[in-house]
Amino acid sequence: MDLFEYQGKQYFSRFGIAVSPGGVADTVDEALDVAARVGYPVVIKAQVKVGGRGKAGGVKLATSDDEVRTHAGAILGLDIKGHVVKRLWVEHASDIAKEYYASFTLDRPNKVHLGMLSAQGGVEIEVVAEESPDAIAMLQIDPLVGLDVATARRWVAEAGLDEEARVQAADLLVKLYTCYVEGDCDLAEVNPLILTPDGRVHALDAKVTLDENASFRHPEWEEFRATETEDPREKMAKEKGLNYIGLDGTVGIIANGAGLAMSTLDVVNQVGGSAANFLDIGGGANADVMAAALEVINTDPKVKVIFVNIFGGITRVDEVAKGVIEALGRVTITSPIVLRLDGTNAVEGRAILKPHLNDRLLTEPTMLDAARRAVAFANQ
Ligand code: GDP
Ligand code: MN
Fold first, then answer.
1. Active-site residue flag, 40
2. pLDDT in tens, 228-276
3. Which ligand is nearest to the CA of 100?
């Protein structure tokens, strides 16, 4: 789960990481209230879960009430890379002497935590990595050993952070690492981490991704979940316990097994169609699961056809066929359905379906034939 910047900063604060005083605002009036509380000048920042807000006009400095009105008014409702701004973070503006970059993430192949630190912050780290990879000091951290202050001190020197920033930066990095580990983050990133002209180091931005697998030990994450703008299809699928991922195409897909579901997307693509979703109904697909799957796909207005691709292994095709018929009795489906049923008890399964087939519920013998038929419906 990705956090908004203001949530990331709240999270940082819990671990003692210095951030600027500020507050959230959903209206211009609220922005004025926060500005009055934290004191001018302030920075008004769009709260969207996408980077590059600064460049997109989503970060503005304001030195008076009038400027707050102008900028807050302009940023609220702004579309940044498809994300519409509904909330602002307003904080006391910092004077900046230097902008650095710091992050912790997981280095899977090496089974270690990876710290990245650079004296060239404020710009996209991908650009730094491309243009001057030597400007990023990488630190592999054994999760069993952790990060101590002595190591952090060596690291800030190696990264070339300014002398006067090093002691505070090392201290902040240890706290950020604690946040990353104890806070169960997949990513904890500060860009920019700043040094002020009067020699203070603190986090000016926060990008935090929480590891959902750890949510069982973080009841406090509930408040972050509450502000998540989930795809309504994915929300419904989650409630029904389905393995569903929403996509942009017009062919709804139901398959058993993640591998087959992915192959189904490929085949649909190969014959000129595009998948509306990924959906793996797993083994032992009964009528309940099938009905739930059809229901979720049915709510997607983009779907023009549903392609059910079942290869029976442990799953028996006759059970799937019964499930489909029962599900169709429960849910009114707006799109035609093309089925490809093969594998264990496929003959019995097809026989069960046969009396129910018509020009909107049909079977094809192979996966490729079924994909072609489905895409023909979708492109009608
Ligand atoms: P991003 O573009 O989405 O990464 O948003 P950031 O929060 O990183 O802000 C973008 C840039 O705005 C930063 O790199 C800074 O240069 C500038 N900025 C943000 N906050 C302040 C501030 O308090 N004072 C000043 N002078 N500049 C700021
Ligand atoms: Mn940033």
1. no
2. 877 889 889 989 989 999 998 999 999 999 999 999 999 999 999 999 9
3. 1
CATH number of the domain located at residue range(s) 98-224 in this protein: 3.30.470.20
> What CA dihedral angle connects 349, 355, 360 and 366, to 10 degrees?
30
Q: Supply the pTM of this predicted model.
A: 0.76
What angle do helix axes 28-38 and 65-75 make, rounded to 10 degrees?
Answer: 140
**Cβ–Cβ < 8 Å for 35, 90:** yes
Catalytic residue among 5, 91, 99, 189: 189
Q: How many CB atoms lie within 10 A of CB 14?
A: 11
pLDDT recorded at residue 114: 98
- 3-class DSSP state for residue 300? coil
What is the position in ligand 1's atom list of the atom closest to the CA of 55? 2
The string of pLDDT tens digits covering residues 100-142 is: 999 999 999 999 999 999 999 998 899 999 999 999 999 999 9
Domain residue extents for the chain: 22-92, 98-224, 232-378
Ligand 1 pocket, 122 CB below 6 A?
Answer: yes
Q: Tell me whether residue 101 is one of the annotated catalytic residues.
A: yes
Q: Under CATH, which number does the domain 232-378 receive?
A: 3.40.50.261
Nearest CA to ligand 1 atom 9: 54
User: Which of the following is catalytic: 11, 101, 180, 244?
Assistant: 101
- Averaged confidence pLDDT in the chain: 95
State which amino acid sits at residue 355: P
- Which own/partner contact pairs does 187-191 have at CB distance under 8 Å and 24+ positions apart? 187/103, 187/104, 187/105, 188/103, 188/104, 188/105, 189/101, 189/102, 189/103, 189/104, 189/105, 190/12, 190/101, 190/102, 190/103, 191/101, 191/102, 191/103, 191/121, 191/122, 191/125
User: How many C-beta atoms surround the C-beta of residue 46 within 10 A?
Assistant: 27
The fold of 22-92 is Dna Ligase; domain 1 (3.30.1490)
Cβ of 52 closer than 6 Å to ligand 1, yes or no, is yes
